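YM 10:42: Transposase sequence, as discussed on the call
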Amino acid sequence: MTPPHAKTWSRRGRTPVVRVRGRSRRRISIAALTCYKPGHRSRLIYRPRRDDGNRDGRKSFSWRHYRDLLIAARTQLGGPIVLVWDNLNVHKAAGLREFAETRDWLTIYYLPSYAPDLNPVEGIWSLLRRGWLSNVAFTTPEHLMQRIRSGLRHIQYRSHLIDGCLTETGLTITPR
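YM 10:58: structure's back
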């Protein structure tokens, strides 16, 4: 709920100030996949998850949430998936590994440790933070969630932005 800072314009001598009432301990997590296929439009598939505020509840995605995201991606894309993931501990969970081993349509490769510059999804987060989430004082978690969804929807419909995130990594797609 703490807003990111960004540069903006204003009249000379009138510095814009965004007032924030308080900090919320609630968390919103988002998992996203950037999908590339030669000769096809790039896609962005995402799932937000709000922390429900329970002390004993999980605040972020579990391996089951990632499994469900992969199943939804397979349904949307309609073909085999070659997944390139960072080394987040949940991505390497035993349950997710077992799930991947039993699916012939899923192949997983891992990026080197501490290499966010090779992950195109980091570019999506950068676009979101610098655009739709900057200089906004969120009044409620619902307000934040609405801005996140509208920003991600905007990116989803502009495949050149998703392509730019891949280009920024220096990685390429090679046809099979």
